[in-house]
């Protein structure tokens, strides 16, 4: 199974739209980009960061669906272990070893926060969120016959 570890702020929301979209859904450009990645790869989503911990999984699925992203794509959230985002992702992968081969991390965090997943990291920016420029790299990483 292919998995996208997806942060929200700085990925699905931008600095200038976050106050408005946090309660109403996501920014339209990142929605379009994420839907394109999902369509091209058949990947599922594991939500990282505060939103995933703030909502029950069923409510999170509804929030994504309300935003225009299939709620069925959401398969889980990372737990906050008190370490880095990368450590939270590693813990999730340790609990789901069948998902280790094909995954990416889409986040606006620094590379030091994502270690040891840097080779699977799609870096976004808090000012722009997920953009069309990120799509080819994400699709290429998820659709590789053999992962890095």
Describe what this molecule looks like in 3D.
There is one protein chain. The protein is of the alpha/beta class and 148 residues long. The protein is built from seven helices and five strands. The chain has helices at residues 18-24, 28-41, 50-54, 57-67, 85-95, 111-114, 135-143, and strands at 2-6, 44-47, 74-77, 102-107, 121-123. Strands 3-2-1-4-5 form a five-stranded parallel sheet.
Strand arrangement in the largest pleated sheet:
3-2-1-4-5
- The average pLDDT is 88
- Give the N-terminus to C-terminus distance in angstroms: 16 Å
How many separate structural domains? 1
Report the biggest beta sheet as strand number plus sense, adding barrel if it closes.
Answer: 5 strands, parallel
Key attributes of the depicted protein:
alpha/beta, 148 residues, 41% helix
Set out the fold topology.
Layout: E1 2-6, H1 18-24, H2 28-41, E2 44-47, H3 50-54, H4 57-67, E3 74-77, H5 85-95, E4 102-107, H6 111-114, E5 121-123, H7 135-143
Parallel strand pairs: 1-2, 1-4, 2-3, 4-5
